[in-house]
Amino acid sequence: MNLLDLTITQLHEGFKKKQFTSIEVTKAYLNQIKKTDGKIGAYLAVTEKLALEQAEEADKKIAKSGDFPMLCGVPCAIKDNILVEGEKATAASKILENYVAPYDATVITKLKEQGTVILGKTNLDEFAMGVSTENSAFKVTKNPHDTSRVSGGSSGGPAAAVAAQEAVYTLGTDTGGSIRLPASFCGVVGLNPTYGAVSRYGAIALASSLDQIGPIAKTVEDAKIIFKAISGKDSMDATSANYQFSNSNCQLKGLRIGVPKEYFAKGIDPAVEKIVRNAIKKAEEAGAKIVEISLPSTEYAIACYYIIVPAEASANLARYDGIKYGLSESAESLLDGYVKSRGAGFGAEPKRRILVGTYVLSSGYYDAYYKKAQEVRELIKQDFKKVFEKVDVIFTPTSPVPAFKIGEKSNDPLAMYLMDAYTGPVKLAGIPAISIPAGTIGKLPVGLQIIGNYFEENKILDIASQMEKML
Amino acid sequence: MISKEEVLKIAKLARLELSEKEVGRMQKDLSSILDYFDILKKAPKVAKVARAIQRENVLRRDEAKEKRSTMAGDLIQAAPDKKDGYIKVKQIL
């Protein structure tokens, strides 16, 4: 038995039956990180000391009682824009290179209460701004299936870590596709929860009307276990909803699946289309009813998204002033200190977004850009609302193309932005979606995205689990 | 194409220092990004925009919450310039 192959449930059963200990599993993962991460680059920091302490604690808990939480003793990794007390949290930015988190994010508190083991902090595009991790100030995370290609982003580190068996599961964040896109590129499962389902207290903000924390895992069942553990109301996050996960028993048989024609239009790789169409056919064979639908505002989604996100980011990133925390450049005046610290600390993409955001919010341009984007966001929401009167879930590709070559798009920000075409609209509406592996083109994985209505994670997880068995 | 002066003006508003090379790059990038936004002109008008996120007010009592005693120290510790448990800033008057 290879410990690295086991899912959360299998580990839990193994701990129960005393087949192995959390220390043994944790050491196996630490060893795997040492062996393979030089090549992959998923981790920014390995928290070996913390991991071994937590594993020892978990083993005590396990020895004491046969009834311990599902994540007890299970080793995970955390995207480096989520705070773990006493560990660095860089958001892959020079401006936070030496920042040590003074407290735990709520999701970390919840995982620690279950007794999980934290192996380390994983790479991302700087401040989660990107689709490839090429915008990380520290390194590019390579795709474990083909190291000449990107892992996707912005949660490229978390997705690659799971794919390379360097963690059982990871937490990522999704603002425009940052969990689902890398999950699809790396051939793992990634869940973007409904806006408000998971507390964001302790997550470094990018765009606050969109950011969500969610799991990346080996299987749909694992993703469900993690989502159950981290979701729910939190008094520290006023946008968190009164939500509690409840099991559903949603079946493919009789299910109405919407297939939006706009997601199979110009720009999709024919090989991706073939794999996703095949998945849809299998769902139909299992008794689902396939309904062709239209989401007519899809073509505006990227422009809308790349106005709203920079606008919110320019405000959120105003906190990096060289005074409270982070990189500080010495200067004569207060103003010079701001300007120099921010100039030295931010990479190209944050600078680009701060400038775009400041521009679209500035006097004279606000109505044409920001206000218009808010209107279009409403249209996109209405599109989904109408469609969910006719169908139960929506099936689409997660991305129009598989993982691209490192460097292929790095000088073309707009080409990068277009990678969010199939994942961004979901975020503008605030609804949940999951990406699961649907097949491969050569070595490269392709993801199937299953989109659900507000707070219907249970439903999409049920369907994803049935699809997973057939794909 | 956005002018150099416009880029510098936005950068000043955003409190961001840019090198000469960065200004040129941003001129080009911003122009292509803003051009792309023109697609929104085609979008149908919306009579009434609901708030981006529909939420009710979330209220709580104005009470001090117990935090671990070392928290304040840890937060101050993160500041690059500090003195006697306070964050130091440049004179503004």
Q: Could you describe the largest sheet of chain A, including whether it forms a barrel?
A: 11 strands, mixed
The total strand number of chain A stands at 13
Specify the overall morphology of chain A: globular
As a percent range, the share of helical residues of chain A equals 25-40%
Number of strands of chain B: 2
Q: Supply the CATH class of chain A.
A: Alpha Beta
Largest sheet of chain B: 2 strands, antiparallel
The CATH topology annotation of one domain in chain B reads as Histone, subunit A
* Low-confidence runs of chain B: none
Largest interface: A-B, 66 and 47 residues
Tell me the β content of chain B.
under 5%
User: For the record, what is the CATH homologous superfamily label of chain A?
Assistant: Amidase signature (AS) domain
Biggest β-sheet: strands ordered side by side in the sheet of chain A: 1-3-2-6-8-7-12-13-11-9-10
* CATH topology type of chain A: Amidase signature (AS) enzymes
Number of structurally distinct domains of chain A? 1
Give the proportion of residues in helices of chain B: 25-40%
